């Protein structure tokens, strides 16, 4: 598997990418991978690397991009803005389209799905979507992130109470905050809080939505069911499945969900 490290020029520096071309002579599709938020990026690297390898061997090219302020790209999270992240998707698209003539998919994990849904209308062509454990709303992403600060102060006789509210108030006032060693700008946090995985209107595309659950008999939440219906009603072809596995994006140790690998490839093959 030939993998290329690439530094794409962008506003405020460069964006680090890994490009893994499809094996063989028949490229079925090309995917842009959009990573999750903050520490989840690190916790999910192993899962994503193994899936990229399997995809390439099956005939799919993948471009992984570290968004502005993340991973090995320029800046740190405190420098990032929501508009810069959406522009990064456009940069990734332009590069991938130069390398591939195959149909393009936006592959998001957790908050990466919000970025995919928000960036797709900015692209010059229809794209398809692969969602892994999507976050339905950016407000939930932000809330979970801010709770890290509250958890860090709970050891001080209840001092954690009210921390989340104070941090939200600071962001609303246009102030930068710091949570668990991460700086966060209101130019990222406030638009993120408004983002949702809403369907595109006026175009029809494929959506593969894969959830992971450690429960023996997982149930689809009402909010997930409603959003899946929204995509179907907007004319998109939707495939949803819940596979068995751990919450690898949040576990203390690096964990894998092998069933997700198989489900991803099977769903993509069904579309070809």
Short description:
By secondary structure, this protein is of the alpha/beta class. The chain folds into 2 domains: 4-137 and 197-271, Rossmann fold, CATH 3.40.50; 138-194, no CATH class. The chain contains 9 helices and 10 strands.
CATH top-level class of the largest domain: Alpha Beta
Number of domains: 2
Could you state the order of secondary-structure elements as H and E?
A: EEEHHEHEHEHHEEHEHEH
Fraction of residues in H or I helices:
25-40%
CATH superfamily of the largest domain: Alpha/Beta hydrolase fold, catalytic domain
Count every helix, treating DSSP H or I runs of 4 or more residues as helices: 9
Return the CATH topology of the largest domain: Rossmann fold
Oligomer designation: single chain
Low-confidence runs:
none
**What is the terminal separation in angstroms?**
22 Å
Any idea what the shape is? globular
Largest sheet, order of strands side by side?
1-2-4-3-5-6-9-10
Question: Radius of gyration, Cα only, in angstroms?
Answer: 18 Å
Number of beta strands: 10
Structural class: alpha/beta
**CATH-level-2 architecture of the largest domain:** 3-Layer(aba) Sandwich
Query: Average pLDDT value?
Result: 93
Q: Report the biggest beta sheet as strand number plus sense, adding barrel if it closes.
A: 8 strands, mixed
List its traits.
8-stranded mixed β-sheet; globular; Rossmann fold; 2 domains; two-stranded antiparallel sheet; 39% helix; 272 residues; alpha/beta; 22% strand
